[in-house]
């Protein structure tokens, strides 16, 4: 299993290039730049990294076709791929941080992204699985280099002929951000790989079964289909700093923001604790937005258990425990684990280079 890194989006393009050089030296497979609404544009910010490296794959995630039309998405990722000489990739999702910031309003009854006022939360676009599938199909047509007379489907249309004949390098890799069962099946059928989010090892068998269903419907059967998983990495030399950071980030872990009771109760001692966590989503959100390492109404001991269940945290003495978890991920079918770094990413890279990568080779 390879290791990818998802980097904090507030790094400048120069800092990102410096990080990419060091990650490449260590043998990291890929570096992902996050697509957030208040930070550097990820396509542009990866350009210096593309020019400064020669092996590491450079990716953007997650990009939603309702925020960026798939044809423009193709233009952006193919441009980056040319500069990177065939080392670019993109992960397409049906939601994400940026689409949430846009205050999307779909028809009543659609899925709700929790907001400051849950009853007024941003509604996610309708038919998200179909929309991501269409985006992948347009991206495939664009990267083929062949002329396409247009694309007409259910959601995204291209009404003029298009041909990206200037794109001479192979690729880019096309991922779907897939966590729900239907999105996983769709990714298995149409993408080059899927990127799960916050999956724990015990959740992987179900994901792989759904992936097999989708993969079985393909006309082509790629030999190197990729299966990744977003995983928060908080391990530091300072144990308390690690858990402080982990508690701060709990809101965006899948079980919290998605209110997944079945996932959360695995880390709670009883039903009352699970109820407390489920009822305190806005407290988790406040800690995340205010960059605070404590959560109102949630004891640190309980929050630390949630961190341990849904992320990697602790100090160097906890590395062996995490390596064992990563080995379970590998055995479950992951081809890469995408570690999400936060504060002081160079320090995190050093820990991964010294302890994680050697153990997984």
Helical residue percent? 40-55%
Mean pLDDT across every amino acid position? 92
* CATH architecture classification of the largest domain: Alpha-Beta Barrel
How many domains, as an integer? 2
Q: What is the terminal-to-terminal distance?
A: 8 Å
Secondary-structure content class: alpha/beta
Biggest sheet, in brief?
8 strands, parallel, barrel
Rg, alpha carbons: 20 Å
CATH class of the largest domain: Alpha Beta
Layout of secondary structure:
Layout: E1 2-7, H1 13-26, E2 30-34, H2 42-45, H3 47-52, E3 57-63, H4 70-83, E4 88-92, H5 97-101, E5 112-113, E6 122-123, H6 128-143, E7 173-177, H7 181-190, E8 193-197, H8 204-215, E9 226-232, H9 239-248, H10 254-257, H11 261-264, H12 271-278, H13 281-289, H14 300-310, H15 319-332, E10 336-340, H16 345-360
């Amino acid at each position: 299993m390879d290791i990818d890194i998802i980097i904090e989006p507030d790094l400048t393009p120069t800092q990102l290039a410096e990080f990419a050089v060091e990650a490449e030296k260590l043998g990291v497979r890929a570096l992902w730049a996050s697509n957030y609404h208040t930070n550097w544009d990820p396509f542009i910010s990866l350009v210096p990294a593309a020019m400064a490296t020669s092996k590491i794959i450079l990716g953007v995630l997650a990009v939603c076709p309702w925020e960026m039309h798939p044809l423009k998405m193709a233009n952006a990722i193919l441009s980056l791929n040319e500069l990177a000489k065939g080392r670019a990739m993109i992960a397409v999702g049906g939601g994400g941080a940026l689409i949430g910031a846009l205050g999307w309003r779909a028809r009543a009854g659609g899925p709700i992204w929790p907001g400051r006022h849950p009853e007024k939360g941003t509604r996610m676009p309708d038919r998200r699985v179909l929309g991501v599938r269409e985006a992948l199909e347009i991206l495939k047509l664009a990267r083929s280099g062949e002329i396409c007379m247009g694309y007409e489907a259910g959601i995204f249309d291209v009404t003029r002929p298009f041909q990206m004949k200037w794109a001479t390098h192979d690729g880019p890799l096309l991922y779907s951000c897939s966590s729900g069962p239907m999105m996983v099946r769709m990714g298995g059928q149409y993408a080059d790989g899927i990127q799960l989010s916050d999956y724990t090892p015990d959740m992987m068998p179900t994901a792989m079964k759904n992936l097999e269903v989708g993969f079985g419907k393909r006309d082509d059967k790629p030999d190197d289909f990729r299966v990744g998983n977003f995983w928060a990495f908080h391990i530091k030399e300072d144990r308390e700093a690690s858990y402080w950071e982990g508690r701060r980030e709990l809101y965006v872990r899948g079980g919290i923001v998605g209110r997944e009771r079945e996932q959360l109760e695995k880390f709670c001692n009883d039903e009352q604790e699970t109820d407390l966590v489920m009822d305190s989503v806005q407290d988790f959100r406040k800690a995340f937005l205010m960059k605070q390492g404590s959560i109102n109404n949630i004891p640190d001991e309980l929050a630390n258990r949630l961190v341990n269940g849904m992320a990697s945290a602790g100090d160097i003495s906890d590395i062996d425990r995490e390596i064992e978890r990563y080995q379970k991920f590998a055995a479950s079918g992951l081809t890469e684990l995408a570690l999400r770094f936060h504060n002081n990413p160079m320090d995190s890279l050093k820990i991964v280079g010294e302890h994680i990568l050697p153990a997984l080779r």
